[in-house]
């Protein structure tokens, strides 16, 4: 009886592992294929071989020369970090205000913020662009960040997170004489750090992948982000797969590095965020 | 501890914003700023040039060479080149016009001609260039080519980089299937026969007609070659539901249903043809250099033929590509822009465009001139069918009104629905015609 249940649990574990290995393969294979293609010569690009027959670095040289890669990577990182930090800051303050105080028009304001999430970017891009242009912020990273310092998505997510924070703890801190500002940063923030971090990761990825807004605001590659640079290897007539994959591999490295360094925190934040 | 972290976070955010502000080069880059207050004759003029060739890594060098040679020959004119992908260039121009920073010259795809004329305040060359100079410049231009950028009798767009649909074919697969690689099919009936033979006797697919997605220029070429049209001459009625158009698309559907035509999409088919797994491909001549490279690496021979016809009806190849539009309202900039347009479409300009960027020369005589393209054409004979089609070229029709793109999409969706299924082509195309008509102004 015990043997049978042991066998069953082993079979179950093997099944789970097989599933996880399969899912890992699905996640890793596209990156592997990009890497593989980036080392292939033009004649081999369309070959389904798992390794290049003739290894070449030409695609990397071509990609590096075609676009100002280092500058675009720095721009992408600056914009993504700047945007994520400011979005988290504004949404933490908004979520705190919405959950902490009963003020007139609170529900209406929250509904309005929720509604802005439903407005497609295409509707607001021209008015936003006109404002940014009037402020003289075209071709600047500030022009990329400023319209995105607040995120309705982050406010809505954090509102739910803050709502679930035990009121008793807040009241206890109040009795101890903590100020509203102190309660937020000393009591609530440390306890919700994992959830806030997981939203931060999503905001970072969304900002990193943004294509349309940098396309409008910047005219020159040196003021633009890497997503715009990658586009230059693609056209309606034909894609330059070799340099495109080389550029994509280079573009993935900083994110990969961040992930390797912060692996534990990122997984923790997703697990905690998911379980909460 | 917590305070320190908070302060560090704040400091980081401020640093980011400061770094971003330092990255601002707007004051010096905005080309239109140089125009403020007009420009006297003799003063240096700077014009902004939006180009999608500059946004394509493989075409950037040739386009930059055009700009460099122009600037060297015209020290008083500076070109501020701005690269924008062709799919986004209309959005970018519209946004910049709304922001009061309209480009001075823009390279726009032909299907947006009508919209550019009515919404971007594009200048007719007849209005900004003296008639005598204009007619002198147009000497030597392909008369059909010049029509491409005309609307209501005026030249708003000067044709710049464009190509025609050609039938690429794999000579090795022809030989393997028992076909003569030196006698490519000239009609769609012959294409079907040859394609079935290739599909039957080799492991490759027979034929693929590109252009059912993206833009409708190849669809327009097919419909026109069967005597149909997509828009009436008075530009008031959509006509792609009429019998001639339906019959052209029905030929395409029959090609797929019979097994002569593969079931791949346009992206996949470029890969399949490059790998030597497809016999024939009707697509843009701009793919030529990529296919030459693939055929050399794959050990097969690439050949090209003119677009096939419907029986003995003459074909009407339609161009893809773009024209240059002068959008500036400033007289000095208009003059400078005209000088630029003249140079890039000159004999020298088209020599660079054809040999370095890969598009057709609008001045056909330069292909026989040893000073320009003669040697290049001899070394690249594949371009010949493409050049021969210039005599039969028809302009890519742009639909009127703000819904021009939806009308184009409606046509393409109807074509896709027809060739991807067994539905009644007449019913599908007529229904699309009536939907498109309701989108007309």
Outline the secondary-structure elements.
The complex is a heterodimer of chains A (276) and B (441).
Chain A: H1 2-38, H2 58-66, H3 69-100, H4 106-118, H5 121-134, H6 141-145, H7 152-163, H8 167-175, H9 180-208, H10 212-217, H11 226-231, H12 241-275
Chain B: H1 2-22, H2 26-29, E1 45-51, H3 57-73, E2 77-83, H4 89-98, E3 105-109, H5 113-119, H6 125-128, H7 131-138, H8 143-147, E4 150-151, E5 154-155, E6 157-159, E7 165-170, H9 171-176, H10 188-201, E8 205-209, H11 217-225, H12 243-257, H13 266-274, E9 278-284, H14 288-298, E10 302-305, E11 322-326, H15 331-344, H16 347-357, H17 374-379, H18 384-388, H19 404-419, H20 425-438
Parallel strand pairs in B: 1-2, 1-3, 8-9
Antiparallel strand pairs in B: 3-11, 4-5, 6-11, 7-9, 7-10
Describe this structure in words.
Chain A has 276 residues and is an all-alpha fold. Chain A has one domain (60-275): Orthogonal Bundle (MetI-like fold), CATH 1.10.3720. Chain A has helices spanning 2-38, 58-66, 69-100, 106-118, 121-134, 141-145, 152-163, 167-175, 180-208, 212-217, 226-231, 241-275. The radius of gyration of chain A is 24 Å and the shape is flat. Helix content of chain B is 47%, strand content 12%. Chain B has helices at 2-22, 26-29, 57-73, 89-98, 113-119, 125-128, 131-138, 143-147, 171-176, 188-201, 217-225, 243-257, 266-274, 288-298, 331-344, 347-357, 374-379, 384-388, 404-419, 425-438, and strands spanning 45-51, 77-83, 105-109, 150-151, 154-155, 157-159, 165-170, 205-209, 278-284, 302-305, 322-326. In chain B, the strands form three sheets. Chain B has a five-stranded mixed β-sheet, sandwiched between helices. In chain B, strands 8-9-7-10 form a four-stranded mixed β-sheet. A two-stranded antiparallel sheet of chain B has the order 4-5. The longest helix of chain B has 21 residues, at 2-22. The model of chain B is unreliable at 1-41 (pLDDT under 50). The chains are: A mainly alpha (276), B alpha/beta (441). At the A-B interface, helix 3, helix 5, helix 6, helix 9 and helix 10 of A face helix 1, helix 2, helix 3, helix 4 and helix 13 of B. Chain A: Pfam families: BPD_transp_1 (PF00528). Chain A: Belongs to the binding-protein-dependent transport system permease family.
């Amino acid at each position: 009886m015990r043997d049978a249940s042991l066998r069953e649990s082993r079979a179950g574990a093997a099944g789970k592992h097989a599933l996880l290995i399969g899912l890992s393969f699905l996640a890793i294979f596209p990156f592997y294929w990009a890497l593989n293609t980036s080392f292939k010569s033009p004649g081999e690009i369309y070959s389904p071989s798992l390794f290049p027959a003739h290894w070449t670095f030409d695609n990397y040289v071509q990609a590096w020369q075609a676009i100002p890669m280092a500058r675009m990577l720095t721009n992408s990182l600056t914009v993504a970090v700047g945007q994520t930090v400011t979005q988290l800051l504004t949404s933490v303050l908004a979520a705190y205000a919405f959950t902490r105080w009963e003020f007139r028009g609170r529900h209406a304001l929250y509904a309005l913020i929720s509604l802005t999430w439903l407005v497609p970017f295409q509707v607001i891009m021209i008015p936003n662009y006109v404002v940014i242009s009037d402020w003289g912020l075209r071709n600047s990273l500030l022009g990329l960040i400023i319209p995105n310092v607040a995120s309705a998505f982050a406010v809505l997510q954090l509102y739910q997170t803050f709502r679930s924070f035990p009121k008793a703890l807040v009241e206890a801190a109040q009795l101890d004489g903590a100020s509203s500002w102190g309660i937020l940063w000393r009591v609530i923030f440390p306890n919700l750090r994992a959830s806030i971090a997981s939203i931060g990761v999503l905001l970072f990825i969304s900002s990193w992948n943004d294509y349309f807004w940098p396309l409008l605001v910047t005219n020159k590659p040196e003021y633009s982000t890497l997503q715009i640079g990658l586009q230059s290897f693609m056209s309606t007539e034909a894609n330059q797969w070799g340099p495109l994959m080389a550029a994509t591999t280079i573009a993935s490295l900083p994110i990969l590095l961040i992930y390797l360094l912060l692996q534990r925190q990122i997984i923790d934040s997703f697990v905690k965020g998911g379980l909460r | 501890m917590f305070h320190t972290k908070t302060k560090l976070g704040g400091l980081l955010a401020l640093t980011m914003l400061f770094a971003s502000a330092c990255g601002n080069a707007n004051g010096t880059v905005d080309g239109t700023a140089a125009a403020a207050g007009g420009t006297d004759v003799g003063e240096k003029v700077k014009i902004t040039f939006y180009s999608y060739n500059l946004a394509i890594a493989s075409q950037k060098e040739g386009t930059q060479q055009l700009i460099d040679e122009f600037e060297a020959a015209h020290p008083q004119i500076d070109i501020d080149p701005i690269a924008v992908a062709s799919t986004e260039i209309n959005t970018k121009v519209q946004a910049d016009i709304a922001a009061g920073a309209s480009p001075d010259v823009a390279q726009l795809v032909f299907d947006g001609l009508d919209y550019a004329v009515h919404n971007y305040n594009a200048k007719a060359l007849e209005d900004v260039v003296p008639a005598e100079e204009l007619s002198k410049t147009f000497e030597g231009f392909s008369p059909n080519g010049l029509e491409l950028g005309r609307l209501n009798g005026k030249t708003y767009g000067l044709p710049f980089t464009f190509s025609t649909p050609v039938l690429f074919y794999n000579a090795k697969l022809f030989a393997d299937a028992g076909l003569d690689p030196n006698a490519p099919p000239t009609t769609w009936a012959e294409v079907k026969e040859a394609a079935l033979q290739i599909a039957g006797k080799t492991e490759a697919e027979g034929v693929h007609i590109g252009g059912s997605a993206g833009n409708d220029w190849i669809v327009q070429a097919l419909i026109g070659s069967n005597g149909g049209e997509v828009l009436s001459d008075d530009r008031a009625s959509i006509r792609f539901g009429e019998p001639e158009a339906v019959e052209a698309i029905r030929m395409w559907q029959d090609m797929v249903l019979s097994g002569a035509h593969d079931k791949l999409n346009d992206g996949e088919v470029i890969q399949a043809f490059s790998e030597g797994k497809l016999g024939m491909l009707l697509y843009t001549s701009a793919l030529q250099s990529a296919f030459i490279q693939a055929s050399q690496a794959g050990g097969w021979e690439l050949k090209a033929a003119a677009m096939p016809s419907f029986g003995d009806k003459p074909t009407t190849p339609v161009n893809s590509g773009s024209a240059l539009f002068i959008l500036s309202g400033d007289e000095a900039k208009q003059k400078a822009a005209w000088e630029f347009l003249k140079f890039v479409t000159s004999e020298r300009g088209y020599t660079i465009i054809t040999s370095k960027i890969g598009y057709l020369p609008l001045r056909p005589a330069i292909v026989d001139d040893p000073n320009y393209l003669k040697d290049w054409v001899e070394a690249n004979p594949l371009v010949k069918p493409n050049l021969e089609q210039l005599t039969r070229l028809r302009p890519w029709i742009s639909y009127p009104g703000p819904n021009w793109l939806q009308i184009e999409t409606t046509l393409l969706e109807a074509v896709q629905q027809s060739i991807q299924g067994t539905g009644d082509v007449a019913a599908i195309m007529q229904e699309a015609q009536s939907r498109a008509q309701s989108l007309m102004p």
